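Revision sheet: structure tokens.
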Amino acid sequence: ELYSNFLFGAQDEKVKIRYMDTEVSLRVMTPEDLLITKILMWRPNDKEDAQRLVRYAVESGNQIDYDAVEDVLLKEKEIRYNEDGKEKTVKIRNPVLNERYNTFRKFIGLK
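Predicted:
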């Protein structure tokens, strides 16, 4: 329960934890921020950590906001360039992050 309160109570980025006879305030990442970090790195241990985080969320009855994760990882960037003397704009996503996020979704069984 302490871990659940610590991790999923972090929505305001500060969590108070009782330690001995005092209360300590800690700044922590939200589960979504932690998941984004794990997907960005995507090393073997990050894959395992991401899977554990998702499993723990399900087991503890907490929700991960996958839309927020997707918004950060798949954010489109506007690129402006000139072609034949005319300014053009295209929106692109980072293909590496797009691939990693899609791999993550398959890895944890999201559609």
